[in-house]
Structures are given as C-alpha cells and as structure tokens.
Amino acid sequence: MMTWYQILSFFFTNGLRIFLGLYLVITLQQLAGNRKKASVISVCAAAFITVLSCFPIQQFYMTGIEIIFVILIAYYLYAAQPRVSLFLIFFYEATVALWEFILSAGLGDIFQSDRFLDMRSNGYIAAVWIVRLFMLGIAFLTVKSHKRNENLSPRIIAGIAITGMLGAVLLSGQNTVSISDDQLTTWIIFSMLILVAILFFNLNRQYEMEKKIMLLEKEKMRYWSMTIRLLKMFMPLTQNCSMTSKIILM
C-alpha cells in the first residue's frame, strides 16, 4: 500500500513526464495548437496513470497508456503526424526509463543498498525526482535557446543518448547492487537503439528539408521559364507597337 506522499510524488512525476514528452513532440515537429487544453488533458492523464499505479499493474501497460494519451493530444490539438509522434514519444519514454534505471542503480551503488531499485521505495522516488529536475533543466535551456534563435535540441538529445549508453555500460562493471545480466543487457541494447533512432530522425529531417529546398528550386525554375515565355510572346507585340508609332510620327 502506497502512502499519501508517494501517491502525490507519482502524480507530479507522471505529470512532468507527460508534459515534457508532449513538449518534445510539439517542438521537434514545429507545431502550434491549444496549449491550455493540452495542459488540462495532460493533468487528467497524469491523475489517471497515478490511480492505475495504486493497483498491481505492470509498468509496461501504464507506459503504453501514457504514450496513447500523448499521441491523441498531439493529433487532435496540434494536428501532429501519428507515426512521427509515436516514434518520438516511444524513444522518449525509453530514454526516461533508462535514466531512471541508471540513477537508481548508481545511487544504490554509492549507498550500497538494493532498496534504490525498488519502485515503491523512497530511494527510487528520489532517483526519479533527480531525473525530472534534470529534464526540467534541459527544457529550460531549450526554451532559452529558441528565444535566442539557437538550435540546441539536436546536440542536447545526442549528448543525453551517448551519456545514457555510457552509464548503462559502466553499471555492468559494478558488484554492489544485484542486477541481472539480462536486465543490464536489455538496457544496453535500448541505449544503442536510442542512439540509432536519433541518427535516423536527424537524417530523415535533413532529407525532408532538402526535399523542400528542391521543390522550391523547381517552383523558382518554373516561374522563370513562364516569365521568359511571356516575354517572348509580348516581344513581337512591343516591336509592332514601336513600328506603328514611328509610322504615325512620320
């Protein structure tokens, strides 16, 4: 049975995770929509997931529900592409879960206690709050960079992914906290998949930008060709008009 402060902590950490995940989806797709409605629905989603966490439900299912909530909010309020939103929010959730595991296992190694890996313990809650504060700091830096017309998002995301993979690899060398080899291998594979996903997304984004530039160039060439045709069509008329005016003057 969870205590009241654990339930309250779950509510705020779930709310921050949903809100920042939605912000990531909206920012990377450069969308605009009704932020007030999105905030209200995000709070309701956080409350619903917090209620579910009071029951013996696996974290996998609660994460799936959270992903569905974010995709629906982005689709109906921001007209986001569902496939792109699913891709972004899935690897966002995987990255957050990876860092929660790294922080909780790292604190367990520092304090030589397995309690930090128990999701109901205060130690694990402390690790989750450290991750949330870290996420808020990144979001704050991203907002400031956008106001200065700087684009820090790709560098920050790449740095988080590389550091996460290094953290997962380093945890395999500790002997203080009892972590199974299968669990460590799973998280290392996930950290590598996150890196590949970031690379794929950046390449796809670059391809789309180049595609738009090519379309603009084609439109520009078509405009110039039409202009030249019109000039060729009206050139004889101007010549005839000039000849006529000369004859009249004579």
What is the string of helix and strand elements?
A: HHHHHHH
Shape assignment: elongated
- Between the first and last Cα atoms, what is the distance in angstroms? 108 Å
Give the strand content.
under 5%
Mean pLDDT: 83
What is the helical fraction, as a range of percent?
A: over 70%
What class, by secondary structure content? mainly alpha
Count the beta strands: 0
Number of helices: 7
Show unreliable segments: none
- Overall radius of gyration: 28 Å
The main β sheet shows up as: none
Total domains: 1
Describe the structure.
With 250 residues, the chain is an all-alpha fold. It has one domain. 84% of the residues lie in helices and 0% in strands. Helix 4 packs across helix 6. It is elongated and about 90 Å long. The model has no long low-confidence stretch (mean pLDDT 83).
Output the keywords:
250 residues, mainly alpha, 7 helices, 0% strand, elongated
Secondary structure elements and pairings:
Layout: H1 4-29, H2 35-53, H3 59-78, H4 82-111, H5 122-147, H6 153-171, H7 181-249
Helix pairs in contact: 1-2, 1-3, 1-4, 1-5, 2-3, 3-4, 4-5, 4-6, 4-7, 6-7
Condensed summary:
The chain has 250 residues and is mainly alpha-helical. It has 7 helices and no strands. The longest helix has 69 residues.
